[in-house]
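Hello again,

I reread your note about wanting to compare the complex against the isolated chains. To keep things tidy I'm splitting this into two emails, and this first one only covers the full assembly. Below are the input lines as submitted, including protein chains and any nucleic acid or small-molecule components. They are followed by the predicted structure of everything together. The single-chain runs will come separately.
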Amino acid sequence: MEYNPADIERKWQTYWRENKTYQTEENSSKPKYYVLDMFPYPSGSGLHVGHPLGYIASDIVARYKRHSGFNVLHPMGFDAFGLPAEQYAIQTGQHPSITTETNIQRYRDQLNRIGFSYDWSREVQTCDPSYYRWTQWIFLSLFNSWYNEGSQKAESMETLIAHLNQWGTKNLQAACTRSLSLEANDWNNATASKKEEILQNYRLAYRSESWVNWCPALGTVLANDEIKDGFSERGGHPVVQKQMMQWSMRITAYAQRLLDGLDSLDWSDSIKESQRHWIGRSEGALLEFSLDNQLSLQVFTTRPDTVFGVSFLVLSPEHPLVVALTTAEQRGAVQSVREKAARRTERERMADTKTVHGAWTGAYALHPFSKEKLPIWVGDYVLSGYGTGAVMAVPAHDSRDYLFAQQYGLPIREVIAGGQIDKEAFESHEGIVVQSDFLNGLSVAEAMKLSIEQIEQQGLGQGRVQFRMRNAIFGRQRYWGEPIPIAYDTDRPVPLLVEALPLVLPEVDKYLPTEEGEPPLARASPWESSDGFPLETTTMPGWAGSSWYFLRYMDPHNTESFVGAEKAQYWGQVDLYMGGAEHATGHLLYSRFWNHFFFDRGWVPYAEPFKKLVNQGMIQGVSAFVHRIVGTQTFVSASLASSYATTQLPVDIALVNEKDQLDCPGFQAWLPEYAAAAFILDSDGGMLLEREVEKMSKSKHNVVNPDAVADAYGADGLRLYEMFLGPLEQSKPWNTQGISGISTFLRRVWVLFTEKSRQPNEQEKQRALKTAHRLVHKVQYDMDHFSFNTSVSAFMIAVNEWSALSALPVEALERFAVVLSPFAPHTAEELWGLLGHTPSVTHQPWPIVDVSFLIDDTIPYPVQFNGKTRFQIDIARETPASEVESLVLAHEQTLKYIDGKTIKKVIVVPGRIVNIVVG
RNA sequence: GCCCAGGUGGCGGAAUUGGUAGACGCGCACGACUCAAACUCGUGUACCUCUGGUGUGCGGGUUCGAUUCCCGCCCUGGGCACCA
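Full-complex prediction:
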């Protein structure tokens, strides 16, 4: 009987589906284990072999945990709202839900072809109204909550309103957009509209006029994490800064907790570091500089110790005081800086960090201590969104201020000794404070402390922790997303009632903005609430639906709440979250933010949603390039290309054979422009190509399709090979050729189970069992260390050892089938059946290792001379060190290597090695 | 510029606490089977000036012994990038 993966895989996939083998148990008494994959966006091009890498690894863990007696939650779903489906809708007029549904179907088929053990009865799709109803509900909950900095948690707006009723803003500790000062009377006498304006200052989901990243080509705003190098992540369009009224999320309220929470997480250092950097905590002081005319200007600085080195102040071009401060003579210069800054795209701003532009406003401020007159400048290197949008410039000790001072001839005053400030700014914290009045002679650390004390005592400002992270813009001017469940009573936002949810996406005639520039939802008529108020026209961003889906899987059909309290309690945290490192600062931060909020409101038992995170590496493609002689349609083999002037053009890797040669007729048929191609072959008659490792993508023509690999080598072959390629977290190139080793392995496994005698003699039985126990031990170790590539090697070693025996005991084969099943589940099911067992192998207990099989009676001691291994001798395990030494010294080969030299020292490491030092 | 990860044969990679560097697989070479080829099976395969020597990016150090620990540097990949 031949090993036929196609038949076996079809058979078992049907069996699993019909018997609901992977359905998670409800009300189980078993311990739980939650293994989650980052759900995919179902793109039109389907999966390539890189996508399933993480899914295979997590599926192995899920299956291993089932064998180990856990009730496993291993779900899959789709992040189904998003730009590509909408762009396609704009081009074709087809509703994005149709494209999305087709793509999801294809993804589901592709995933099932690989034999994943998902419980599909829990599938979620973010674009499904029964799902986004709860995304909208969460939005309303955030709208109806504020962050109490006193209790350090989110609370219902009711407690805020109660405080305002009684005290106004007195003693109110709240995360807010700007700090307000109101008496209880002011609040109580305010109109509904004025009250809402005040509340907006505190709500966790709120509207504000803010600087946004506007992408004209996509016609929408983008979050910082949706931009790469100044271009939109999707589509690569330029992005500019623009001020707009926008829905935002007050994630900054959670900055400190999001930072602290990282310490308890079992995540890679690189992801934790990028989150820390993104949050960007810095300590310093807010400091007031008074102006001539009653006004004052506030700056944020992390170096209050250098306060006597301030020689000018700089405002961002957008700073609200710029216009008021600028004198008539300076108006032109300042205006030109402001206009220039406004015109710059994000991209230009980043490309050009070496030059600064600025102008003097004509105004002065007074130094808070020395009362010296300091000129106030406008400079484009100061960002309006960070700190107060104004800085005290200390050019001697800040390189950006230094650059600015040099360019405009402003004074540079050394206040920390130790640098060479005629050459560059001295930013080190190692130094003694000089020319600084009461700070003279102190270290930087001492001066920081004392300066803040003095600033606070004299009422000039206060110590302050500042975060780089900004609040997240939430509205998108797009169609294919969750509608925001808000109506407007004139300008006052009014939340829809929970009973009115879901607010379903309306039908529109086109998926484009209206002629007036309104988002596509404005095309719906009427787009208004049941009581006739106009509805919000922006939709939620992609990250809304994906920030809580891991909770919905716990309780996917609940119509009463987004997740039931008992289910949330039982499943707790995600034990293992597998996904790409590209979500380091987007999805993973937003999900943590929302989950902290749910925790504060008492809806989930943990603030942190993902206990352990593993980032699978990228599988790269190996692109192929053909040489074309410049200006012709003649193509030349790579081996001859050096004799011609050529350009290299990418070729679909389907047209390349295993010797890196081009299928010439196939190439001519591939694209019309190559129909008339002529070829100059090398002496072997081949058309050699250049190969290069790059990211796998459709546009590079280097995509390998998992379906095709599974058809040729079986799903189990694909699974084993993806794991065998190398460490999970590393990037590595895909080379289909290598999979033949896996094929050979699986066939040899099959032979062991179908042709090998099961009546071993005692010696063979012991040898076979030793191999089996060592295999189980190794695989178990690898499971705990996510080292799946070495497990595949261990399987091969076991099979090689067993193949050399004439018979195998059934106990060895049984262990093998169970241990193989997480990796190659279809084959393992079939093997389990061949041993006479009834299905399924899925819940068979993981074999127990008999440690006596792991220990050998004798140890092959390597014998080294001066650290170089020369030979080995077998010595009984328990032999004491002194005896090992004499055995080695008495060995005939030892004499040869001593070769008349003196033995200076003999090192015996019991059980390991012998090293003889001669000289 | 800053932060993080990594650098081992022709290739993917292994080496679990400082203890035999190159497991396992690909590729390649030779052999068996075959009229022949493919498949399959077997043997070999780090390098060199080969009774020996060298070798885990480079240079140093610690140690009886270093891919592993320490110092300095180079390169590759990823992230951040005027954050005061």
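For quick reference: The CA atoms of residues 145 and 485 of chain A lie 16 Å apart.

B.
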